Structures are given as structure tokens and as C-alpha cells.
Amino acid sequence: MERKLTALLVVLALAGCATPQPQFVDQGQYTKALRDSASKLTWPDGRTPDLDVLAEKSGPGPDKAPAGSERVVLEMTNACAWYLGWEDARERGDQAAEGKALRVMDEVLPKFSPEDPDGQRYARETAAKAKAGNGSMATDYVANNCESVVWK
Q: DSSP assignment, residue 112?
């Protein structure tokens, strides 16, 4: 996940996704922005990320990162949480939690990263398959993007 995040951050910086003159943040500013943004997201029970670890692994370290890059990291992490939360609920037979996860997968995750229409399409297809009982795309996403996330 770290290599993918680094590559994505470079692309975002080169694209100037937020402003014509990109602003950059240091590790402390990145960590604060990550914490502030994380509090605005919903997380399934048992799948709240350890934000200290997430900031350390995804942040710029001694360098600088584009302002707003924490949003991409949090969106990916939130998708991990809901895909795993959905699977957790299915395994427990918790229909209420499963239904809530499916609603988030269907209504929230496809709206993440408007600059990435392929990612939005993937989220829509993942939700459609999950509603039909097929978790293969969610499983693939988790296997390719979530291995370094530490849950509280």
C-alpha cells in the first residue's frame, strides 16, 4: 500500500489537483489533517484505523506532501474498513451491520475521489456484486490495498 500511496501522491502533486499552486505540508500538518478528516467519516464497528500508524506509514516523513493528500489515504482506508466490515458482518450473521455496510458501499464509496472515475466505477461494481452476494471484488481490493492498515 505504501508504494501505491507514494505513486498516487506524486501523481496528485503533478496534476495540481487542489489548486493551481499546490501547497505542501510536513508530517505534523499531514497528521493533523488526517485526524481532522478521519473524524468526518463513518467507520464500521471494529474497523477504526490507528491514525498514528496510518499517518506514520502514509505521511511524508521528513519530506513534504501535497495538501489534501490525506483525503486519498483516508478514502482508501475507509473503503478497506467497509469492505472488511461487510465481510465481518456476513461471517457473524449480523444482517443489520451487513445492510449498513452495503448501504455505505453503494451510496458513499462510489463518491470518493471524483478525480478518479475508474476508482468510482470499481466501487460501484464492487457494491453491485456485494449486493448480489459476491464479495470477490471487495476481497481483491482488500488484498491489494489494506495489508498495512492497523485497526484499533
A: S
How far, in Å, CA of 98 to CA of 152, rounded?
20
How far is Cα 60 from Cα 66, in angstroms, rounded to an integer?
Answer: 9
| Closest listed residue to residue 5, CA positions, set 44, 43, 51, 56 | 56
Could you give the CA distance from residue 60 to residue 56 in angstroms, rounded to a whole number?
8
The residue to which cell 469492505 is assigned: 83
Residuewise pLDDT in 10s, the chain (152 residues): 554 544 444 444 444 454 455 699 999 999 999 999 999 999 999 999 999 999 999 999 999 999 999 999 999 999 999 999 999 999 999 999 999 999 999 999 999 999 999 999 999 999 999 999 999 999 999 999 999 999 99
* Exposed / middle / buried, residue 63 (Cβ in 10 Å: 0-12, 13-18, 19+): exposed
How far apart, in whole angstroms, are the C-alpha atoms of residue 133 and residue 9? 34
CA distance 141 to 56: 22
